[in-house]
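User: Can you model how heme C sits in this protein?
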Amino acid sequence: MKRATLVPVIGALAVVGIFSAVVSAQTVRPDRAIKYRQGIMGAQGWNMGVLGAMAKGDRPYNKDEAVRAATFVSQLLQMSWDGFAPGTDQGAPTKAKAEIWKEPAKFTQLADAAKAESLKLVAAAQTGDLAALRPAVGAMGKACNNCHDDFQSK
Ligand code: HEC
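Assistant: Here's the modeled complex, given as structure tokens:
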């Protein structure tokens, strides 16, 4: 096959690859899924760091920055779960415990609890009142750790 005809074939294969990864969890490449979920988790940690610093007084309180960070946390909390597809317990360095795929209902329940808590976090940030933000940041952190305690290895 000449180079000129090969290029569109490769392009078409790449497109098929992307779509099949979305359509079927079975075709997810474990190493990509692991990096995807870790990246999102890391971004959650970044934004919780912003809020935690404000809550502790290590960073000047700013309503707009608090709303922005809280909104990012709540949006990110919708995202990482695709990266925990079946078959992604190994394939790259990971701290995800095998229990995630043995007790998926419990894992999902803790994910849902964290999502619900993040809506309260956004509402607290929107009050513009640091005294309201502080306990919401604490409750959010607890919801994160409730899952890490059971499902993330140390
Ligand atoms: C339902 C479970 C669950 C919830 C809720 C959860 N996490 Fe995680 N988190 C995990 C698991 C599992 C890992 C390990 C992922 C891996 O190594 O593949 C992880 C990893 C992390 C990491 C390390 C990422 C890295 O660099 O490898 C950070 C940071 C993190 N989470 C922050 C958070 C924050 C902040 C929240 C709350 C806003 C949160 N997580 C909520 C399960 C959860």
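A couple of observations from the model: The mean pLDDT is 90. The CA atoms of residues 110 and 147 lie 6 Å apart.
User: Helpful, thanks.
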